[in-house]
Amino acid sequence: MAIRPVLRLGDPRLLEVCTEITEFNTTELDNLITDMFDTMQAEDGAGLAAPQIGIGLRVVIFGFDKNPRYPGMAAVPMTVLINPEISPLDDKKESGWEGCLSVPGMRGEVSRFSHIRYTGYDAAGNRLDVTAEGFHARVVQHECDHLDGIIYTQRLNDPRKFGFTQELLDAGMLAVAEHCE
Ligand code: NI
Question: 78-97: string of b/e by CB count within 10 Å (b at 16+)?
Answer without folding.
Answer: ebbbbbbebeeeeeeeeebb
